[in-house]
Amino acid sequence: MNGEEEFFDAVTGFDSDNSSGEFPEANQKVTRMIDLDAGRSGRGGKAGERPPQENGIQTHRTCLPAPMFTRSDFSVWSILKKCIGLELSKITMPIAFNEPLSFLQRITEYMEHVYLVHRASRQPQALDRMQSVAAFAVSAVASQWERTGKPFNPLLGETYELIREDLGFRFISEQVSHHPPISAFYSEGLSEDFVFHGSIYPKLRFWGKSVEAEPRGTITLELLKHNEAYTWTNPTCCVHNVIIGKLWIEQYGTVEILNHRTGDKCVLNFKPCGLFGKELHKVEGHIQDRNKKKLFVIYGKWTECLWGIDPAAYESFRKQERRGEPWRKARQGDGPEKADSDEVDDVPVVQETVQVIPGSKLLWRINTRPPNSAQMYNFTSFTVSLNELQTGMEKTLPPTDCRLRPDIRGMENGNMDLASQEKERLEEKQREARRERAKDEAEWRTRWFYPGSNPHTGTPDWLYAGDYFDRNFSDCPDIY
């Protein structure tokens, strides 16, 4: 294994066990941006406070206990200038650039639009099922829109569970490796209609003005009633202007979703920004059968909605478009794209919303974010609830669950100094545990997942071992 593939538990400086685990800037000049409305924050609830019940249905908090902190007082360049081209798990960013979630919790955001999976399971036709699965794959990255905070790196052995009876699923994830960092997850429908699982190890690189997250690892969705399995990988995510200027995000790359039973494939192209920003957020693609015959055309934006139409109708419309006026134009005043700037990557002018071709079918639309989302790291309503700690939950959770992690809890509560100190303490504890294992020549043992091969692709994967929800947590490691 080469040096670029190694993970150093987010060690500063960059791979020494003697490092302090933080940069000096981390505890300086942290100022609060804005206070949330007291009435709203009360609805969010404190840790351990039971959420209200409405008609017997459990409700979830609608805001975080404290607003986010400004990131304008940190010299990011002083940290990153020596790291161009390096894998970012080798350095520690100031905690103000984090968001109060573990990466394991961020993975769970795939489930926000799980109704698309339930819908796919109910569809009698394979083509209709693929349409819903494609919409689910696109919706999985929608929560990243305007999310410029970095989730906390999970500690080895860290876990996260989520049970949502209202949405019809339960979910478990575990950090199974640090060399390289790998997060494994497993989810199942409460009505036994699907199983969703995978292992993810994104590669983060800094390229001077941007940070690029290259997706690695296979995602698998099984529709049990149809004996079908679909596999795909996520597009590449890029955050621009990490040094200076307004942060903005784009997703690009080709996502191929394969139905292993029928041979049908959905090919989705996440468009890079392009000249004048005309392609920003756009997704275009099609569904084809095993003989590569186009069955359905898909278009839209991963930040807004996704539509589909019959290929013949799509081509007919395009022919009419070529003969007449374009159906979509860039807004007036869009200037030419600048050459490689020494300062910032210009934020593209957001183009008009998706223009719907007559006869199209709506496949998916993004959920409206809460009105105070900008003060909550641009979280969706679903995301706001992920770190909620309800009364009695500590007794049922394993001691490794993200909700019990003190640095994330400190940041969520607005105590940045405590969060930074706890983050450094946890990282040092993790390094000490690694040294002890090396001394004893002992290997780390995962608890809920084991290494194997994906049953549908044959590629290396981490598979769920089962029994988590039996709640025998007596042999869980002490990582906090």
Structural class category? alpha+beta
Helix count, per DSSP? 10
- Helix percentage range: 10-25%
Low-confidence segments, ≥5 residues, pLDDT <50?
1-55, 328-342
Report, as a whole number of angstroms, the end-to-end distance. Answer: 29 Å
- Rg, Å, rounded: 23 Å
Largest sheet: 15 strands, antiparallel
Beta-sheet strand percentage?
25-35%
Can you tell me the overall shape? Answer: globular
Draw up the topology in text.
Blueprint (H helix, E strand, L loop, with lengths): L37 H7 L8 E2 L2 E2 L17 H5 L17 E5 H6 L6 H8 L3 H14 L10 E3 L6 E6 L4 E10 L2 E9 L4 E7 L2 E4 L3 E5 L4 E5 L4 E5 L3 E5 L7 E12 L5 E6 L11 E7 L5 E8 L3 E5 L1 H13 L37 E5 L15 H4 L8 H4 L9 H7 L3 H25 L8 E5 L6 E5 L16
Helix pairs in contact: 4-5, 9-10
Essential attributes:
disordered N terminus, 19% helix, 10 helices, 15-stranded antiparallel beta sheet, single chain, two-stranded antiparallel sheet, 480 residues, alpha+beta
Explain what the structure shows.
- It is a single chain.
- By secondary structure, this protein is α+β, with helices and mostly antiparallel strands.
- Helix content is 19%, strand content 25%.
- The chain has ten helices and 21 strands.
- The strands form four sheets. It has a 15-stranded antiparallel sheet that branches. The chain has a two-stranded antiparallel sheet with strand order 1-2. A two-stranded parallel sheet has the order 3-4.
- The longest helix has 25 residues.
- It is globular and about 70 Å long.
- The two termini are 29 Å apart.
In short:
With 480 residues, the protein is an alpha+beta fold. The protein has helices at residues 38-44, 76-80, 103-108, 115-122, 126-139, 311-323, 381-384, 393-396, 406-412, 416-440; strands spanning 53-54, 57-58, 98-102, 150-152, 159-164, 169-178, 181-189, 194-200, 203-206, 210-214, 219-223, 228-232, 236-240, 248-259, 265-270, 282-288, 294-301, 305-309, 361-365, 449-453, 460-464.
